[in-house]
């Protein structure tokens, strides 16, 4: 069995702690590798290497730093098939989804090539007589990122691309369930010309995370994962004086108005609800048709589409709609919640509980489920299921649907399907959720906008990628400079223009 490594100081380094996590092939259920789980000393070694390397990197001009990212984009494209295959093998998602994972990260790298423009700073000529004032954006030093299993390429790139572009060194602690692609990305960046020690990958679990949160040299921590861990990391990181941004779980509602194009809405729901086995933070997990007649029409359109979904391993070809979930524990949790939904009185319209795939009996496959008549007090409504389960909550009016989405504690993404511009505009304006789709089911902002939820889906002030990333990974220094010409009148400085 393959023993994976850390990537420290430009080399693959074996784990020293003696602790490992099993890395599965979710399609077969086999353990295909083991990932080392770093201890405090291993993390500290990476931090001291990062701190040394960062000084030279920060002194490298932004254009040269950007050129490394340019080359990195070429290498990502060159190795796209290899990366996608490794990603699918550990995560279970289809090859087109895996390529999308790499591609959406790559687009953030492309955006970060604009670092020289983003880091220019501000200048006020003549803030007073002989006085100039300017603000610079300087790197923080050593930053760290802790990432989830569900986008093993995209989310690390969301973090390390801007961090590196800004002149920081970055320590990535990827999910122990999908560690291979992050290691490959670190190798590719070095091939692109990144100096050793600027991007290091330290595999691990809570022990490594706590070591990151407590290390005094690490200046900032980015996290993406489930809400309870996001809250924990935000609290501990902030109390240790770090700059922290944490992005948590989701329960994304899609409201379907009576005037919506019902075929379009049903197609969108099937893609957004079941794609990647529902393991997306922007998946739609709650459909909210407005009016019983709309609900009946929607369910009628959804059922045949869901029954046609092809569930299988990524090796079965590009017409597979979705693959297995990530672990046996994830499968068990999903089916447990489905059973709770039935017990609590929801109507299970499509029941995937008996789903089995010949030849892959030990894989972590979960059939698609559709619930109707779900109510807000049920566990399947309150909790993030993170599986191929769509719940329908019937609302009797637009206001009721809006209130439902607003009252949920999560606020990552949402969507409305309607032909009415007025309703759509009202929805976008009033909803207390960070990312909104209008006739778009998964409104993931592109790299040059920012990504982030509200409420319990995010902790911290700034979003990911887009201009916010350049703020998060730099700090502002403002210089007020006075030159002798300002001292002309009798040697005394005059602040006239500033009075
Ligand atoms: P997770 O919270 O289990 O793990 C995320 C990271 O935290 C991993 O690196 C893991 O090693 C670490 N971790 C786990 N338990 C820890 C603990 N007790 N102490 C310290 N660190 C710990 O999340 P996951 O299952 O890998 O990912 C799925 C979750 O991520 C879902 O809730 C999903 O909605 C969320 N997610 C959110 C976004 C977003 O942008 N809001 C994007 C993708 C995924």
UniProtKB/TrEMBL annotation:
Keyword list, A-Z: NAD, Oxidoreductase
Annotated EC: 1.2.1.27
Domain Aldehyde dehydrogenase: 13-479
UniProt GO molecular function: oxidoreductase activity
Coiled coil: none
Keyword set includes Phosphoprotein: no
Listed NCBIfam families: MMSDH
Protein name: methylmalonate-semialdehyde dehydrogenase (CoA acylating)
Upper classification of the organism: Bacteria, Pseudomonadati, Pseudomonadota, Alphaproteobacteria, Rhodobacterales
């Amino acid at each position: 069995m393959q023993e994976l490594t850390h990537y420290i100081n430009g080399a693959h380094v074996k784990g020293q702690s003696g602790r490992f996590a099993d890395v599965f092939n979710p399609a077969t259920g086999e353990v295909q590798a083991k990932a080392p789980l770093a201890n405090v000393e291993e993390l500290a070694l990476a931090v001291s290497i990062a701190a040394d390397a960062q000084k030279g990197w920060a002194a490298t001009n932004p254009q040269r730093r950007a050129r490394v990212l340019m080359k990195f984009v070429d290498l990502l494209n060159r190795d796209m098939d290899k990366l996608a295959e490794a990603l699918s093998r550990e995560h279970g998602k289809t090859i087109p989804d895996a390529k999308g994972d790499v591609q959406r990260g790559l687009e953030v790298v492309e955006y970060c090539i604009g670092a020289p423009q983003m880091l220019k700073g501000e200048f006020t000529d003549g803030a007073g007589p002989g006085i100039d004032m300017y603000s610079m954006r300087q790197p923080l030093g050593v930053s760290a990122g802790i990432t989830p299993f569900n986008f093993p390429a995209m989310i690390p790139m969301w973090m390390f691309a801007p961090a590196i572009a800004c002149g920081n060194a970055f320590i990535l602690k990827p999910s122990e369930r999908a560690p291979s692609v992050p290691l490959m990305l670190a190798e590719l960046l070095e091939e692109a010309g990144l100096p050793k020690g600027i991007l290091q990958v330290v595999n691990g679990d809570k022990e490594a995370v706590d070591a990151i949160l407590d290390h005094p040299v690490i200046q900032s921590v980015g996290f993406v994962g489930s809400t309870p861990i996001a809250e924990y990391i935000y609290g501990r990181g902030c109390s240790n004086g770090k700059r922290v941004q944490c992005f948590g779980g989701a329960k994304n509602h899609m409201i379907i108005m009576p005037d919506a194009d019902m075929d379009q809405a049903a197609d969108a729901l099937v893609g957004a609800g079941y794609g990647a086995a529902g393991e997306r933070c922007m998946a739609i997990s709650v459909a909210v048709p407005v009016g019983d007649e709309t609900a009946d029409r929607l369910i009628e359109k959804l059922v045949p589409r869901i029954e046609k979904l092809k569930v299988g391993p990524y090796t079965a070809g590009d017409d597979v709609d979705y693959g297995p979930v990530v672990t046996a524990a994830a499968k068990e949790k999903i089916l447990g919640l489905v059973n709770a939904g039935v017990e609590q009185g929801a109507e299970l319209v499509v029941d995937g509980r008996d789903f089995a795939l010949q030849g892959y009996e030990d894989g972590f496959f979960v059939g698609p489920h559709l619930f109707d008549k779900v109510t807000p007090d049920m566990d399947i409504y309150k909790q993030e299921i993170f599986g191929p389960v769509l719940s329908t909550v019937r609302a009797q009016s637009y206001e009721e649907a809006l209130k439902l989405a607003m009252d949920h504690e999560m606020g990552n993404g949402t969507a409305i399907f309607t032909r009415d511009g007025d309703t759509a505009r009202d929805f976008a304006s009033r909803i207390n959720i960070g990312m909104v789709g209008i006739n778009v089911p998964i409104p993931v902002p592109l790299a040059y906008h920012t990504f982030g939820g509200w409420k319990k889906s995010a902790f911290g002030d700034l979003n990911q990628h887009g201009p916010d990333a350049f703020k998060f990974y730099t700090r502002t220094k403002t210089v007020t400079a006075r030159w002798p010409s300002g001292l002309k009148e009798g040697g005394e400085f005059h602040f006239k223009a500033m009075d």
